[in-house]
Amino acid sequence: MKSSSHHRYKQQQFGFSLLTIMTFLTIIPIAGVVIYILVLGAPAINWEFIFGFPRGGMREGGIWPAIVGTFYLTLGTAAFAVPIGIGAAIYLSEYAPDNKATRLIRIAIINLAGIPSVVYGLFGLGLFVLFLQFGTSILAGSLTLSIMTLPVIISTTEEALKSVPQAFRTVSISVGATKWQTIRKIILPQALPGILTGVILGLERAAGETAPILFTVAAFFLPRLPSSPLDATMALPYHLFVISTQVPGMPIEIQYGTALVLLVFVLSMNIIATTIRSRARARRQW
Amino acid sequence: MDKNITRRESIITFFIKSTGYSAIVFVGMIFVFLLLEGLPAIQKVNLATLFSSRWYPIEDYFGLLPLIGGSLIITLGAILIAVPFGIGTAVYLSEIAPRWVRDLMKPFIEILGGLPSVVLGFLGMLILSPFLRKLLELPTGLTALTGSILLGGIAIPTVVSVAEDALDAVPKSFRDASLAIGATEWQTIWRVTLPAARSGVLTAIMLGVGRAIGETMTVMMVTGNAPILPKGINDLFSPVRTMTATIAAEMGEVASGSVHYHVLFLIGIVLFLISLIVNITASAVVFRQKKRQERILS
Amino acid sequence: MNKISIQNFSLQYSDGTESLRNISLDIPANQITVLFGPAGGGKSSLLRVLNRLNDLADVIHQEGKVLLDGEDVLSPKIDVIALRRKVGMVFARPVVLPFSIRKNLTYGLEVAGEKDSDRINGSVENSLQQAALWDEVKDRLDDPAIALSGGQQQRLCLARVLALEPEVILLDEPTSGLDPISTGKVEESLQGLKQDYTIILVPHSVQQAARTADLAAFLLQGELVEVASGDTMFTNPRDQRTQDYVQGRFG
Fold first, then answer.
1. pTM of whole model > 0.80?
2. What residues in C contact B8, CB-CB < 8 Å?
3. What is the distance in angstroms between the Cα of C235 and the nearest Cα belonging to chain A?
4. Is the ipTM of this complex over 0.95?
5. How many Å apart are CA B43 and CA A190, to the nearest integer?
6. Tens digits of per-residue pLDDT, A19-35?
7. Facing residues of C90 across strands?
8. What is the CATH number of the domain that holds C153?
9. Given CB atoms, is B96 within the 8 Å cutoff of chain A?
10. N or C: which end of chain A has fewer CB within 10 A?
11. Which residues on chain C are in Cβ contact (under 8 Å) with B1?
């Protein structure tokens, strides 16, 4: 009896150590990636790099148009994906009956979430660029990215709405509020932090994607800022891709510098979202 | 005043309802469009060619097998990495780690999930690839193996977060009952908790698979992009090309309406269908588990 | 005339629970009518019919009439929103909205479209006075309502209903989570309120029913077994089942 439990404890010790090592092996590369890019990219960062325009076939100067382009694309994605996404989540959480049609909607959302990003690019090319003749434009890119971002926004918003206690709805109805009044005055405000977190995380992904914008919006050497939604634009992810694979003689610091700027762009959204989430949890009134 | 409120309310309800159904509309649109542009490929290229193993569009060789094979071998490799590390990390975070470790590590893993794939491909190209080339003495570092490792890393956050949620959802009473009979925590994890979270863990794996199959930029940058049909385990050390990379690499150079153009859309249909199957299966598994749990708990 | 007249009312939910069978009951104005009985008897369901709150539930069969001041509240022509302001409800667990104390009280008027701020502010003090809560919270009306104790929260819920100037107040086991002192305060408020309102109470114990009832109705498994005045019901009920329940032989 004694030796059997001794054996089992040894087994447990071994197993625990193994899993701990595995986890750290997973975590360390993440930290490594961030630190590596930080260290190797920092030398390239100066005022001209961030705010200047590219020169000399991109081998000199700055990446300001790419930064602006990514910013516009993120805004454009938000403009379409946020209203539709939140609306759909409100429908699923507050209105949808428990029937086949609702199940179909959920299956559709799961599918949208799983479609490879390059297939979104194909779709965007076919529909927005060619068929609707928007051309290679911020409009086409934003529309493509927004459909891709919908599933994330819908699912996190729905979760945020569902986490608001059902009792609030019952009480609100019992004092004579309508359904929409209840949603607008109680449910949405209480779910707002969770919704914001989901939106920001969704937009963070959209900002970092390359494949959907490859054929729908991205231009490589465009040394001026876009002036309308129908313009093509540079964008950070696409820029990094091209300068690291297609331009011979590209100085390595510029490559790392671009990677760093993209990383900072994306990670700061992550940090904002996480901060909103933890502060809201502390201030909850239920 | 009441009439106005009712009218406004029904307009708002209508808008909300339409956004709800919009998801179906979008999926339908995507599928229809892919079909419209992809099916002509079947007319213009006979099926035998499509199933051949030579992909050389310039000379009208449109064999899809090397591309499908490329995607498969890389996904397989990615799964072999993502599953042990992903599930292992999930188990560690959910069952073993103290609270503060877990609260520290979860955001870290979320960060990895948010890293743009082009950044990972960039680093893979500059660091991992030469490293593997020297380590394994290969002619080139741009191989299926490099791609698998990177894709495994990309899939891990998905696997970890879904699996960890599933493990977390296992009722405490299960664990308590097992410990009460005298099992160690280790035994409890593998004999009780993990089987109880089985469907959630399976879902996590399938979602990881979906992520891996769908990756584009990373594989474009590190797998060498040589459309050669992988035939055995040794081909893990040679370059391959995935379906996704093919579309991304060649779409910019085709003439709209050409045969090549349509074949690329056809590949898009294949990718769409694969992700459809993976995701519907994953959600059906979750649905059935949820029903079973509801019956048990009611 | 009776304030509420329930005529041959029957109800069934889709899962078969808490159904009501052929209930006929007249509820007089300005009195406390108590609906008591063992769990599952249909008391909550009957309450929720009166403010049409069970529209939210899964009802598969419903027939009969429920008249409020002579009008059938079940008719589709009825303005349900207005009905719910006229017939207010206090629930078993105190549920305060995630706002300040003041906003909890003004919420009902806000959604009703009331814009007159004098009326709104007046109703805040008025309703808190009626619920015997004014002295305790008058200095912290803008504090979050969640900071109040359980008993205070429940009296806030009562005040919330009173702020809408209803005619009928429904209370579904309002003191089930409260300590005896808070329970006493709520019961005391009800005695004061019945002069201006019609009160229908589902008590959480037979003793509470006996303490508060002017009129008592015994519901057993969806059936109305007996109706009697508060004095007679608990000392000398007619039906054997009522007697058994009142004396604690089952429940």
1. yes
2. none
3. 36
4. no
5. 55
6. 888 888 888 888 888 89
7. C171
8. 3.40.50.300
9. yes
10. N
11. 113
